[in-house]
Amino acid sequence: MERVNSTLLTEFILTGIPYPLRLRTFLFVFFLLIYILTQLGNLLILITVWVDTQLHTRPMYIFLGILSIIDMGISTVIVPRLMMNFTLGVKPMSFGGCVAQLYFYHFLGSTQCFLYTLMAYDRYLAICRPLRYPVLMNGKLCIILVAGAWVAGSIHGALQAILTFRLPYCGPNQVDYFFCDIPAVLRLACADTTVNELVTFVDIGLVVASCFSLILLSYIQIIQAILRIRTADGRRRAFSTCGAHVTLVTVYYVPCAFIYLRPEINSPLGGAAALFPTAITPFLNPLIYTLRNQEVKLALKRIIGGPGTTSDV
Question: What stretches pass through the bilayer (predicted)?
């Protein structure tokens, strides 16, 4: 142990994602545009929900505004560092920077899981319990649920970061990934990682499985309620309010399950799958919600001074 303690690492080198050198400039510009559009799109939704009086007091759009904040945070934690992979020279990350990146990614990522579950529950109440919805999902409860999601996400992120970096890292320092994530970092530890791998599987598996199960249960009830609506227009409007959420949940959960819940952690497909929750989903969030959500589009028209009418939930 004395030898390990005397050679502890102070920095890591992220290898990034493999790519042909001739595409270096294209990939840099591509992810730069993805990052800029992600920030601008989510900021637009956040401002729309905040400014429009018909949206910022309704739980569904409060959740949507919080989701935009999370997406902006995840994109900022991951994408700028990913872009450095497409520039010349080796750019190491400090040990503290690696700890911070892992913590904030799992903090924001798990909070997003909880938020998706809250959004599904909100839609369940709005569609299956419409008469009691104002009582069952009021502003005070909405704030409590959101605060609980942030606290639970912070605890989850701290647990993963502490367990991962309590191990000694004495070399090599090359992380075979484009950001500091648990499976890639654990491969560099100079100690037995069996307990860490088990805790990671159980902890993340519990979060993903429980949240996804609750979302699935909510949408089974929602679909049954929608099918009982007599008018085709009513069914179309009900499906429209849920379609965007289902799309984003699918794009987010499937790659996460592939990354953390499979036995083989060194698959080359892992890096490609990780691009979805870290870069693609935050980019798609504002795009899907503005194109699929009629009320957000009407709110945008009201903000810029165009004609618009309100619509029912």
Answer: 26-49, 61-83, 103-121, 141-163, 204-227, 239-261, 273-291
